[in-house]
Design a protein that fits this description.
single chain; 162 residues; mainly alpha; 8 helices
Length: 162
C-alpha cells in the first residue's frame, strides 16, 4: 500500500512532465489521453527499478520519451502537425498575443521534427542542462549540444522563411 501511495504522489507532483511529453508527441486529445495512460503504466512497471540515482523528473522524462517514441514507431504513422489549440498555455495577468503567436509557430515547427529532435527540444525548453538531457536520452553531452545547435539553426531558418 505504501508503494502505491508513493507512486501516486510522484505522478501527482510531476504530472506536468507527462503532459508536456504527450502534448509534443500527439495530434489530438484522445491520443494524448492514451499516451498519458501508457506512460503512467510504463512508469509503474519500472518503479521498482528506480534506485534514485537520478532525479525523479529525469527518470520520468526517460521513461516518458521512450514510451512516446516506441508508440509512434509501433503505429508507423508520421506526425507533422500539432493542434496547438490543445496546448494549454499559462495565462498571465498581461496577455501577450505576440508572444503567444510566436510560441504557436515554434511549437508547430517543433512538431515537424523527428522523435529524438522533439524530445531534445522539449527538454531544452524545460531548462534542462546538456548533462541532464544526455542522462535522459543516452547521448553524450557534446552530442546533445551539437544536435540542439543544428536543430535550433534549422528551426530558425524555417521560421524566418515564413
Amino acid at each position: 500500500m505504501a508503494k502505491e501511495y508513493e507512486f501516486t504522489q510522484i505522478i501527482k507532483d510531476h504530472e506536468g512532465v507527462i503532459f508536456k511529453i504527450t502534448t509534443i508527441y500527439t495530434n489530438n486529445h484522445e491520443d494524448q489521453k492514451d499516451l498519458y495512460q501508457e506512460i503512467v503504466y510504463q512508469l509503474w512497471k519500472s518503479f521498482d527499478n528506480f534506485r534514485g540515482d537520478s532525479k525523479i523528473s529525469t527518470w520520468m522524462y526517460r521513461v516518458g520519451l521512450n514510451t512516446a517514441i516506441t508508440r509512434l514507431k509501433k503505429e508507423k504513422r508520421k506526425v507533422n502537425q500539432i493542434g496547438i489549440d490543445q496546448v494549454i498555455m499559462k495565462q498571465t495577468d498581461q496577455y501577450d498575443t505576440e508572444f503567444e503567436e510566436r510560441l504557436k509557430i515554434l511549437y508547430a515547427h517543433i512538431h515537424g521534427l523527428n522523435e529524438l529532435e522533439k524530445g531534445l527540444m522539449l527538454l531544452l525548453l524545460e531548462g534542462k542542462k546538456y548533462e541532464e538531457i544526455a542522462s535522459i536520452t543516452g547521448l553524450s553531452p557534446s552530442n546533445v549540444g551539437t544536435k540542439i545547435s543544428r536543430i535550433k539553426q534549422r528551426l530558425k531558418t524555417q521560421i524566418v522563411k515564413k
